[in-house]
Amino acid sequence: MLGVHWFIIATVIVLYIQRLVYTRLGLRDIEYERYFSTNTAFVGEEIHMVECISNKKLLPLPWLRLESRIDPSLKFQSQGDLDIKYGAYHKSFFSLSPYKKITRRHKVKCLKRGFYSLNSAVITCGDALGLNETCKNIDLSSNLLVYPDAINVDEIPFPVRSWIGEIIVRRWILEDPFMILGIREYNYGDPLNHINWKATARSGDIKVHNLDHTSSPSLMIYLNVEDSYNTNGYVAKPDIIEKGIIYAASIVNYALSNGVETGFASNGSTIDQPKQIIRILPGAGAAQLAILLEAMAKIVIAQTTAFSTLIEEDIDMGTKNRDFLFITCYEDEDMEKQIDKLRGMGNSVEILKLDAEDGLVGSDDIYEKHVS
């Protein structure tokens, strides 16, 4: 009977010691890293979230649990070692022997544009018998940018191909007053401000500057995040604006791939600059495409300023010789007056009206993701 008592006492002591050991040393020398396989993706693409965990000590770990919250717009494929509740709360389970490293790759489908960040996780360690748990927070630093959905420009209710073609042709028609190739004889209809007075005085005949044609057509796409007039910033139907973002992204890609310098502006803001309107001046190439798509991925569908204020800034800056495309749900009297002013300053303005009756476009037709 005495032996049984000593056995019970010894068992209690062992249990207490192992509990104390795991409480103090269980999470020591544990390294954990979590990151996405890419920094950028498009809606509909599948990527991987990679988890790496290492036990850099002699003490084995019967079980470890990693918990974190991840936006449900990132859809994870079901796995036996990954528990997901309500589409947002993720738990990963591990068992680590001494000096063991485990790497796992979870398949993720990007369902919605946006900026996703893995900032932290909670790691929990248990003793050999599951009688005690010890946990701590882990700081993470991994971001994913999901670009807007992409469609063929022929699906947009606006003649994008012919319109971009007109912009490209116009570069050979419009003369650039700052690109002077030499002088030539005066022709009927030449403006007086093109006359070269010194050459005219020397020759006795009227001479004018021989101007080169502009070689850099520039386009600005404006997105109005207001879905109706005078809403005081409230957007009742954000899906309509999402459709506008899809249109803008597709047109931007098409214009840049055809050599047209393109910019983007909106009276909304981005998630990392919540009080600033978006205004990116025209540029060219793959770098410009990445900048524009990043801004569109980060747009928060909420009004920062009135759309008319955004247009007024171009009028105040004296913007000339630029092509504008306004993507908007409505057109009011103030906008019409501002559009007339822009056109009077030598700009062209087109409007792509968002129709609430149209369904959101899908992600089956993916456009070329890089400017050639």
CATH class of the largest domain: Alpha Beta
Q: What's the story with the biggest beta sheet?
A: 6 strands, mixed
Spatial order of strands in the largest sheet:
2-10-9-4-7-6
Beta-strand residue percentage = 35-45%
Task: Give the helices and strands, then pairings.
Layout: H1 2-25, E1 30-36, E2 40-42, E3 46-55, E4 61-69, E5 74-76, E6 82-85, E7 89-96, E8 100-110, E9 114-126, E10 133-147, H2 160-170, E11 175-185, H3 197-203, E12 207-213, E13 218-223, H4 238-257, E14 261-266, E15 269-270, E16 278-283, H5 285-298, E17 299-300, H6 307-317, E18 323-328, H7 333-344, E19 348-353
Parallel strand pairs: 2-10, 13-14, 13-18, 18-19
Antiparallel strand pairs: 1-3, 3-8, 4-7, 4-9, 5-8, 6-7, 9-10, 11-12, 14-16, 15-17
Would you write up a description of this structure?
The chain folds into 3 domains: about 30-145, Immunoglobulin-like; about 155-170 and about 215-355, Rossmann fold, CATH 3.40.50; about 180-215, no CATH class. It is built from 7 helices and 19 strands. The strands form 5 sheets. A 6-stranded mixed beta sheet has the order 2-10-9-4-7-6. About 25% of the residues lie in helices and about 35% in strands. It is α+β, with helices and mostly antiparallel strands and about 375 residues long. α4 (about 240-255) links the parallel β13 and β14.
